[in-house]
Each structure stands twice: as C-alpha cells, then as structure tokens.
Design a protein that fits this description.
about 90 residues, alpha+beta, single chain
Length: about 90
C-alpha cells in the first residue's frame, strides 16, 4: 500500500524561496521518490502538494524533506503536513 506525502506551501513567497521550493520538488523527482507531484489550492494562503511513495521509502523521503526545509531556511514557507495511506 502506497503512502501519500503532503506538503503545505505558502502561496505568497519571495523569488528566492520560490526557487528553493521548485528545487525541492525537482529533487524529489530526480531522487526517484515520485514521478509526479500534484498541486491543489488548500485555501487563499496555501497550496497542498502531494505525491505517492512506496512505504519502504517513506522515512527516507520524510527525512530528506525535513532536512531540505531546515538547510534552506524554508520553515515559514513549506511544511510537511502528513503522510496518509493510499489504497492502490
């Protein structure tokens, strides 16, 4: 059963933060965690970005995301919201 990882991304961000968020998404794809990231409006302030991942890679992906957020000072811009089960 796959897991879905959700990220809450602030809509109104500066150009530098926007580049870092795009780089995170690209890194998730190039590292093979996912092939596609779904983006939807959560509300007027945030987007929800989500992707499915095999359960054996969940911790590695979570750790990568949290480390990336910390190293790039994005804690006010992007948040790891939750990981939920998918029924695929």
């Amino acid at each position: 059963m796959n897991k879905t990882i959700k990220l809450r991304v602030k809509k109104e961000i500066d150009r530098s933060s926007e580049f870092k968020v795009l780089k995170l998404k690209g890194s998730l794809i190039t590292r093979g965690f996912t092939e596609i990231i779904h983006i939807e409006d959560e509300n007027e302030d945030f987007y929800l970005n989500s992707f499915s991942i095999p359960p054996e890679h969940k911790k590695e992906a979570d750790d990568f995301i949290l480390d990336y957020i910390s190293v790039n000072n994005l804690s006010g811009t992007i948040t790891l919201v939750s990981t939920i089960n998918d029924n695929f």
